[in-house]
Design goal:
4 helices
Length: 211
């Protein structure tokens, strides 16, 4: 075990012990096109073909459609969806639903909680062209926490905002004694693929991309 740091030494009387095991790994996804108005318009054109439907109503529909599909998928596959109250310790809620079957792999729980997020507001200019502005301050919107079991990484949480567009945060709690293999993996719930992950080996480390 490595030498204790200054903080641990200062509070030594309050500590029962220490360990070097990694508690969790958090990967923050970043979607560059969603961070600027011009990039968002480019993404919208790629999605729909033009700016014709780039308005507030269609943005709200997109967020609502995502929510309905998440709930419909969960209902069809008997996956609990829990809307958490402000301040709830979501990792403690999730621990109650972790499958006891050691062979289980896939989605087992979805938690929904509000948190601040970048949300675009569409306004029409004098010529009728859409103008995008960030809502200030950032509003609280629903974030969906998808809890999965992966054979290599163990318990994984993928956090996604409902309104478009925002990055994804992937919080992983690796299992003791397990290391990621160099392969492509599909993370799925029963009956349908949700995410695809690429594990890319590198010098002394590995990178996982989710899509």
């Amino acid at each position: 075990m490595k030498e204790a740091d200054d903080f641990s030494t200062y509070h030594a009387d309050l500590l029962d012990g220490q360990y070097d095991c990694v508690d969790r790994i958090v990967l923050n996804g970043y979607f560059a096109l969603g961070q600027q108005g011009g990039g968002f318009r480019t993404w919208w054109r790629l999605l729909t073909g033009s700016d014709a439907t780039l308005d507030q109503e269609h943005l709200q529909r997109l967020a609502g459609r995502f929510s309905r599909r998440v709930h419909a998928y969960a209902h069809a596959h008997h996956i609990p969806v829990i809307h958490c109250a402000p301040g709830a310790r979501k990792h403690e809620v999730a621990e109650q639903y972790v499958p006891q079957d050691p062979t289980f792999e896939g989605l087992f729980l979805i938690l929904v909680a509000k948190a601040p997020a970048l949300v675009w507001e569409v306004r029409k200019g004098k010529t009728g062209a859409p103008h995008l502005a960030r809502k200030q301050p950032w509003p609280y919107v629903n974030h969906y926490h998808f809890h999965l079991i992966d054979t290599d990484w163990g318990h994984i949480t993928i956090k996604i905002s409902g309104p478009p567009l925002r990055g994804a945060a992937d919080a992983q709690r690796p299992r003791m004694g397990r290391s990621p293999s160099s392969q492509t993996r599909h993370l799925r719930g029963e009956g349908g693929q949700l995410f695809r992950g690429w594990i890319v080996p590198g010098p002394g480390s590995a990178r996982r991309d989710l899509a």
